[in-house]
Amino acid sequence: MQILYFRITLSVKHSSVSIDLLNFLFTNLTLIIMQDYKTDHPFDIAMSEEQQMTWDMLRKFAETEMRPAARDAEAAGRPSDELLDKMKDLDLISLGIPEAYGGMEIEQDATSQALALEALAYGDLSLAMSLSLPMLTAKIITEHGSEEHKKELLKQYSDGSMFHVGLGINNSSIMADALHSSVLVNESGEELILNGIKTGIAFAEEADSFLISATSESGESNLYVLDKDTEGLEIISKEFMGLKGLPLSEIKLSNCKIKTSQKLGGHNYSINFQELVDSSRIGMSAMALGVCQAVLDYVVPYTNERVAFDEPISNRQSVAFLVADMAIEIEAMRLMVYKAAALKDIGADFHKQASLTHRFAAHHGMKIGTDGVQLLGGHGFTHEHPVELWYRNLRAIGIFEGGAGV
Amino acid sequence: MIHPLLPNQLQKTQETMRMAAEFILRPISRKYDKAEHEPPVEMEQLNQAAAAQKDAGIGDDSVKSMDLKGRNLWAVISLEQMCWGDVGLFLARPGTGLGNAAISAVGNPDQKSKWGKRWASMAITEPGAGSDSKNISTTAVLDGNEWVINGEKIYVTDGDRCDCVVVWATLNKTMGKTAIRSFIVEKGTPGFSVARLEKKLGIRASDTATLIFDNCRIPRENLLGGKEEIEMDADAAKKSFGGAMQTFDNTRPMVAGMAIGLGQAALDMTRALLSEEGYQDNFGASIGQQTAIQYELEMLEAELEAARLLVYKSAWMMDNKMPNSKEASMGKAKAGRIGNRISLKCVELCSMQGFSEDHLLEKFSRDSKILDIFEGTQQIQQLIVARQVLNKSSTDLK
């Protein structure tokens, strides 16, 4: 809550509170302004009918198609082509793409998108990101691309590979962050020269081009479209502790020369990078929520069935309270995600709420991940149960930037 | 439509309440923390003034004129802001006792009209029974047209200053919760006395009394809710005690809201003190770009916002007539512990200034502890949530 104070020293003796003083305070003057967004719509947390329908459909897809495929995707390092086809058939990518570029042009509000991401991540985070990444990339190009870029890059989503554009937001340098890229861009006449290392780029081998965030000397970050065969661009496949169902790579840029028009939106365009990052943080938080809900729904029946000392382990407070706290923080995380998305939907400033939500999801997501394994004991440590997978994937929350958007 | 945002009207209420907190409660906050057991006369004056301010949104009449659908959420955000000012003083505001909540929740029309406007405190806890309120040993025996009450009650908030007390007593000690009833006992009834007032860690502006009932005779019609005889039917008996406990589903969001207000007060004051020494927030920056204080404050702010939304949701459910027992406990557990953690952390962040009585941070950190205890400790809330999430009875999960 942002608070604007007009501190006025009132020389009032507080030995008595007069009606006059109250009149002065409450009716004549507003001394404290706390309002930081405007809406006439009442407080509400119920899904709309349409949201509920999409939710039911996606949640079912996550449970029946994604969850059972999670281990195989980890082993193979990528989702099967069959599953990818099914995910593409959900039409979530083309939904927001304008008709002129082969899409459906149905504008999606942030809350509906957050709900969709949560539902998908309930199945598996790697697999959900196989879909959320092209969704986000298409959204960024739709919102910020020049006519030329849209023509070139958007069409393929409807009739080609959904991974033809690799999104490079994550940095290799530890001290860099989403707003300060570890790739630097220098302008030299008609050319831009990029140097540095990006990492965590999904399906890089399948991409024809990349959308890479780079920071200029002035400290401004933007996105740049690089062809795969740009001289000085090298793709190096990487392994991470989690998100193993999704192929991830590092991209090394050594003196890569591109034209000024390859800046997304054109030479003079400046992207609101903070807003892009904030929106993607709401998306990643929504996905964390989906995974956390999966953990809770798994440990409840497990602790109710697992018997030790002649009774279910959930009959003991030390176990039951861990589960209760999980449920409390998940409900809180859900409301944080909803509020951040709702603020975006009414056009209010959502930077602070997105930041708080992301911080909350990272902290409590990992706590829920680790408690999930703890509650299964030694069993949780093995591949017999999915909790160790969720544990590894939840570590990505708070770290992986630009993995999903709302 | 998913829209967990406050409409303009409620945000105006927030501002009005914040002004009352800032300009009326804050200036006398330290005074009554020091002068424990001295009734804050300003709160009575505030009530009188508020009564004349029907449209200002702090009088009870303005609540009644509001759309009933939003009344509980309105109440939560109002007292959140009042408690941003001072929790102790808020509790000492005449007419706002927990007993009033009980009367309005389970009282019959006659009781509501007779006692609704009086200041009613609530006496449950005894030296030998706290959270396990079914084990109380205060007894009530029907003798002719009167109930005879015997027993000792402790930790009665407003117990000295109130007009009447809602007392929990058992009709038969051997029958557990099925025999528990609540009774309205008026101040000045022979056999009813205030034995002493506690000296406390915090909320010193509010009185906490020990009450003695020694053959205290009250009219038969003062039985609040429930039947005069003990139900033999298990379901009916369960319902009877559940009815009494239901008061708490309604009041937990309120107490949780108090913790949110206090937590926000501690964060605001910490920022104000730090900004005098050049501090600025840096929300959303990476760990490498934030100072330790920026990181701490962002995390605490996130926790507070999370707790706040849980509490708002539980009040919204009440407004929409949805069963909210689980959510009310979720909000109370989270808000209680977060309010306490924030206020203690804020003292630490402000170092000796935080520890000093020059500022109210140290007071907030003392006041906050009770909010994690009364109206059900954090652990009782966890128990309620756990039983519902795991689908357990109270015999399985003790």
Largest sheet of chain B: 4 strands, mixed
Shape of chain B: globular
What is the H-and-E element order of chain A? EHEHHHHHHEEEEEEEHEEHHH
Distance between the termini of chain A: 22 Å
CATH class of the largest domain in chain B: Mainly Alpha
CATH topology of the largest domain in chain B: Butyryl-CoA Dehydrogenase, subunit A, domain 3
Main sheet overview of chain A: 7 strands, mixed
- The dominant shape of chain A is globular
Average pLDDT of chain A, rounded to a whole number, is 92
Q: Return residue spans of chain A where pLDDT drops below 50 for at least 5 consecutive residues.
A: 1-15
Strand content of chain B: 5-15%
Q: Which strand-content bin applies to the residues of chain A?
A: 15-25%
List the helices and strands and how they pair.
The complex is a heterodimer of chains A (406) and B (398).
Chain A: E1 4-5, H1 19-28, E2 32-33, H2 49-66, H3 70-76, H4 81-88, H5 110-121, H6 125-144, H7 147-159, E3 165-168, E4 183-188, E5 191-202, E6 209-216, E7 221-227, E8 233-238, E9 248-259, H8 273-305, E10 307-308, E11 311-312, H9 317-345, H10 351-376, H11 387-394
Parallel strand pairs in A: 3-6, 4-6
Antiparallel strand pairs in A: 1-2, 4-5, 5-9, 6-7, 8-9, 10-11
Chain B: H1 8-34, H2 41-52, H3 60-65, H4 71-85, H5 87-91, H6 98-106, H7 109-115, E1 120-123, E2 139-143, E3 146-157, E4 164-170, E5 180-186, E6 192-197, E7 208-219, E8 223-224, H8 234-275, H9 292-319, H10 325-349, H11 351-355, H12 361-371, H13 378-390
Q: Main attributes?
A:
heterodimer; A: 406 residues; alpha+beta; Butyryl-Coa Dehydrogenase, subunit A, domain 1; Butyryl-CoA Dehydrogenase, subunit A, domain 2; 4 domains; 7-stranded mixed beta sheet; two-stranded antiparallel ribbon; 11 helices; 45% helix; 16% strand; B: 398 residues; Butyryl-CoA Dehydrogenase, subunit A, domain 3; 4-stranded mixed beta sheet; 4-stranded antiparallel beta sheet; 13 helices; 52% helix
